[in-house]
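WP5 quarterly update. Target: CoA transferase subunit A. Source organism: Aquibacillus rhizosphaerae. Length: 220 aa.
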Amino acid sequence: MLKPIINAKDAVKHVEDGAVIMFGGFLNAAETLVDALVEANVKNLTIISNDTCYENTGVGKLIKNKQVKKAITCHIGTNPETQRQMNAGELEVEIVPMGTLVEKVRAGGTGLGGVLTPTGLGTKIAERKQIIEVNGQSFIVEPALKADIAFIQASICDKKGNLFHKGTTRNWNPIMAMAAETVIVETDSLVEVGHLDPETVHTPNIFIDYIVCKEGSKIS
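Structure tokens (predicted):
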């Protein structure tokens, strides 16, 4: 079955105030969708992403526009506005080691309750967290993460919603597609069914709900 192809304005109608949104990408996000979110001015969002980008790119635009109440992320060093809002008490920031964050999202997507990790033992990361012992070794219990919406990116998408992710975009986008109730993909290129070799499909169409073509994307 072909997936609905919609515009960004219609896509962000699925986002309500207070929603939890996952964003795939490194120092970027699904920019067409982010711009539509900024225009819609949806508030009190919780975002889950590798980083908070820069002030004027990706999720950094949402933070700058005061649409985010909490960011769950790996680092904020590239966005001074994130740091300013955090220090001023305007934005809650939960810093999670990258490998741990990936596994928390993966656990959410595969129906697990969480993961056990030694990363962060003896540091502030472990404060107020459950610690258990397995075979004589201590682990932090990290609960799984899920979201209401995932805005992910694809290099190529066919009209059934099968996705190919180029390079490092394969790192976050496929697992986030598994961990959200509604998944909307923004694609650089939209192609007919059969164009993608099945061996190159990184995210299968079963996880995708809607397709949005990136501004200036190639459609064939």
